[in-house]
Amino acid sequence: MDEGGSHIRRRVSIRKRNRPSLESIFAAPTAAELKPGDEEEEETVAGSRRRKTVGVQPVKHSDSEEDMFGDYDSFTENSFLAQVDDLEQKYMQLPEHRKHATDFATEDLCSESIKNKLSITPIDNFTELKTDEHTKNQSGHNDVTLEPGADLLYDVPSSQVLYFENLQNSSNDLCDQSAIERDWNSYYHKTVNEELPHNCIEQPQKNDEFSSKIRTGSDMNRRKSVKDDLKSAMTGNAKVQTPIISRSKQLKETLLSEEINVAKKIIESSSHDLGPFYSLPSKVRDLYVQFKGIEKLYEWQHTCLTLNSVRERKNLIYSLPTSGGKTLVAEILMLQELLCRRKDVLMILPYVAIVQEKISGLSSFGIELGFFVEEYAGSKGKFPPIKRREKKSLYIATIEKGHSLVNSLIETGRISSLGLVVVDELHMIGEGSRGAILEMTLAKVLYTSKTTQIIGMSATLSNVEDLQEFLQAEYYTSQFRPVELKEYLKINDTVYEVDSKAENGMTFSRLLNYKYSDTLKKMDPDYLVALVTEVIPNYSCLVFCPTKKNCENVAEMICRFLSKDYLKHREKEKHDLVKNLKNISSGNLCPVLKHTIPFGVAYHHSGLTSDERKLLEEAYSIGVLCLFTCTSTLAAGVNLPARRVILRAPYVAKEFLKRNQYQQMIGRAGRAGIDTMGESILILQEKDKQQVLELISRPLENCYSCLVQEFTKGIQTLCLSLIGLKVATNLDDICHFMNGTFFGVQQKILLKEKSLWEITVESLRHLTEKGLLQKDTLSKSKEEHQYNFHITKLGRASFKGTIDLAYCDILYRDLKKGLEGLVLESLLHLIYLTTPYDLAFQCVPDWMIYFRQFSQLSPAEQNVAALLGVSESFIWKKASGQAVKKKVDKDVVNRLYLSFVLYTLLKETNIWSVSEKFNLPRGYIQSLLTGAASFSACVLHFCEELEEFWVYRALLVELTKKLTYCVKAELIPLMEVTGVLEGRAKQLYNAGYKSLVHLANANPEVLIRTIDHLSRHQAKKIVSSAKMLLHEKAEALQEEVEELLRLPSDFPGIVSSSIEKA
Predict the structure, then answer these.
(1) pLDDT digits (tens, 9 = 90+) for 530-570
(2) Neighbours of 931 (CB within 10 A)
(3) Which pTM value belongs to this model?
(4) Is residue 108 a contact partner of residue 114, using CB atoms and an 8 Å limit?
(5) In the 8-state DSSP scheme, what is residue 280?
(6) What is the C-alpha to C-alpha distance for residues 182 and 518, in angstroms, rounded to an integer?
(7) Residue closest to 322 by CA, chosen among 630, 682, 706, 680
(8) Which of 100, 104, 85 is nearest to 230 (CA)?
């Protein structure tokens, strides 16, 4: 300050103080590492808002915020803060100031002019100055606090207190309004527009007028000094660069980001240090505790995750018994890929229901950790997937959709963006056409991307060596089960324990002592009632039955002989379950379920609708239902374990049980964390005893490629896609690719008469004859291996639409014929064109129902039948049993019948009424609807590749949506959320949740109270899935905006300038 004292000159000191980085903040010392004086020092330097108190002893501040000034406060004679302290010391020497710790001098001199001229308003870059009420409460004293209007410090930042203190001591004209305004505006202009550097804070140079003052420590017990207020204000101003986000949230996000970066470096290096949680941020571990209750990994999981092959990113196959915890290992590896290596991940699962379950389970992780979870099942999924700039995607897909996704990534040159492919139930590679599709998917990934890792897992693998050779993978196995499993066989009333050491494979265990009446013995010769009542209702039980009808009969039979006491067990919850089943089915309820649910018993098979199945599974998982009679599909589907598993007979339908099937069924016994033991009991007759003993002692069945066995869905489809994707375009390259497939590994076993070369040549010839491929020569040589193939328009349409090549020419013909007289007065004609061919070939119409429905058609709808060549007289003759002389295409007739079913369903949107009209199981009708929606999406992609079918494109987009959801339009936005089916969507809509935004912002606790029979777990999953879907849509729109605003790379000016530089 100059001698006149009218202005303050601010100069930047050369000395700069390092500001601690966020990394050092998070690396907090442990209690053991702290020195005795550290804690006290930290408390002493913590800053807070200056407060005026009378006669109060100093209190220790427990402010959690770090001291941003560290050890460099520089309270020496030449410092700016020293000037403040000196000034204050001067006033404390006066009697009135010693008597009163509060300084009113500044207010007395300047309050009038300041109040008139200074109006302090919050600025976006500053925190609002407020009294620290928290500190007040902690002090334990009755502080005398001045009113905000009376205290100048409420109106002026603490960093300006020195300015007004100096005003008092210099001259009377220091309160001149223009000077105050000038310096005030100068201060704000500089502070708002100059960001503080991260590594330093400006330090004003010493002031000669106050440098000679000697400071003493005699007033340690006085109130908090101006220096603390100044420090507090500067701390606040330095922290408010992001005022919207709380400091704690900032710290958490920064910590997560830092840990991800550290983990990424660890993974990329050869270090064996796994970091906080298997090379993942510690937040991942916390989320597993929060969402899944997993606090510690099993020993085998730790061993598997620390394998050298995993660290080196080699392909891996691992096999463990059912319920051993295989999925958790895969999830951790997927999170490493998404968060640390910043690559997309594909997870392939066998069924739509499991895909949806996994989507719901991982959406909450995606929201917390910043990646997308995208569903590829049924008609859902975008090809090619949206290319994300920042966040990565976890694609969860069925086998078929996974194949289409890989094709689209290869075609767009993005296959290298796929860092990891995880396959659950890897043994399915040997199961028919779905196995062939899975094999093709993995073979393409292996051939086109050397950086993509493949992880396969299964509970039932036998010939692992072949799979290892195919996938070029390491193998890990363990016999670990979290719960011990005991296997039993029951013959008549005797129970035997399976014992591999015994001579005949079993030892006597016990006799059943349940008292049976003569009537009960006739109804239940297998003693099922005795076996189930040993565990229910306190424990759960599964009874596997050979057929769907047998499931229903067994459920009714068991309930007929259960005591009335079972009705009282969780009676209210069972009543609510029945009520909810009626609500989702428009007041309808299966008579069998109506009788069995009050006893805690239900059947579970494909005859149920998705809504019914979901409600029953939820009720079983929380113990409201204690017994399921089910078919073998439950063993491979969603995870529903039980204390005891009973196999009603060693048959699946009419076929004798396979070892793999048996292993999957008994694997459901024993619930980790609930049961101490699991039991399986196989009921058999004396005649089947020898076969069963062989069954339990033999190894698992080998897995064999179905690539050639499924000719049109296998090798032909593979050859077409290889040429379409330009992965291999001549015979030599295609054969080279074929040698790398699972079939190529097993060709010596599978091929007896023809060689792989001959089969490949035959496949290419078939495709050429069908008009899907054309060939030309690279040279004048006539040798066949010199031919180069290219795909035709029809071939590309078939490949893009993933149409079964057995039907592609029929589909083309039907669509072409439809253009001649497409009837658009109703949806019937379009529905016929999207009815799946494979389901039509299996259909057996009820001719009387067919005729009744035909006679109710409108003239326009009858016109559709006439165009297809199906007349009313033909249907009448079939219904009345008369001979039909006129030749009519049976497949067209059957397909039209299924079209009637779908058409009626779209009009009525009530599966129960349609089931009654056509005398078909409601589960079959829903499967038909799902199949039609999926096939409609395929036909749409087929038409997009052929210009002549342009008219179908817009029509099929809307039809696909109708078939996918089959509900009123207002429910569709809710049903887009994974896990929300029609019944739940109606409940949510009626409760006021009418859009995706509503659902994404819902409170799970409120949902539980509002929606009937909704568990907390399900509510959280629904909200997480809605948030994930909303984020995906928002991100996609943002990407589109950025793309539109970005200057094209081929912009004329840019191109010409780059040419000039070159």
Answers:
(1) 999 999 999 999 999 999 999 999 999 999 999 999 999 99
(2) 19
(3) 0.73
(4) no
(5) B
(6) 107
(7) 680
(8) 85
